[in-house]
Design a protein that fits this description.
alpha/beta; Rossmann fold; two-stranded parallel sheet
Length: 223
């Protein structure tokens, strides 16, 4: 039976790649996007629900699918206000998980970040850690939390300092061996592919998946 997927964060780097993959995947007959802005030029199999996703519960009647892919995330530069940052990075994923449980969606996959820790003294790491706990508490059957390291890929917006950091990081990549492998740059296309593979194989026993394991899962053939 063909499936319906929900994507949150389809305008971002990882989310946009995942959207393209789902559009070209015959296993999916419908894709639902929930966002603030409309994406032009999408095929008929994509339904767009436009509104304030900080109030995601207002979409609960349409929030029905086989799987939810949550690629929501902001940065300190884009969202310097900590209260707003938390409403996005904590509030949206946890509300999405709540709606998934309410509507009996069996698979929920969310992108978190390396360093996520609810007990951290660093606000951003703490927020991600609290988000993970909030999602796990919903007890959705197939829950996967991905913790990528630095994400590589071509972004729409210009982030000069981030680009410089990526160049430096790429230079020192050969030094990342053994346990340090998890700190290597991971491409957004690898994260998107891993999310798709997890949704269609459900073979991972791990709920929380670190960056090096994400890369391994992205290479699994499940078509």
């Amino acid at each position: 039976m063909k499936k319906t997927a929900i994507i949150l964060g389809a305008t971002g780097l990882t989310g946009s790649i995942l959207l393209e993959k789902l559009i070209n995947d015959d296993r999916y007959e419908s894709i639902k996007l929930f966002s603030r802005t409309k994406i032009d030029g999408l095929p008929k199999k994509v339904q767009q629900f436009i509104g304030n996703i900080l109030e995601l519960e207002s979409f609960k009647d349409n929030f029905k699918a086989s799987e939810v892919f949550c690629c929501i995330g902001t940065t300190a530069n884009k969202t310097p206000n900590k209260e707003t940052y938390k409403r996005i990075d904590f509030g949206i994923p946890v509300t999405a998980a709540k709606l998934s449980k309410l509507n009996s969606i069996p698979t929920f996959i969310v992108v978190s970040a390396m360093g996520a820790n609810a007990k951290s003294s660093v606000f951003y790491n703490k927020t991600k850690g609290e988000m993970e706990l909030g999602v796990l508490q919903k007890n959705i059957t197939n829950t996967y939390i991905l913790r990528p390291s630095i994400i590589g890929g071509e972004r729409k917006e210009s982030r000069l300092l981030e680009k410089i950091g990526l160049v430096i990081f790429k230079v020192i990549q050969p030094l990342f061996i053994g346990k340090l492998k998890q700190y290597k740059i991971i491409e957004a296309k690898e994260i998107a592919q891993a999310m798709l593979n997890l949704a269609n194989s459900k073979t991972s026993k791990e709920k929380i998946i670190n960056s090096d394991k994400i890369r391994e899962i992205s290479k699994i053939k499940n078509n």
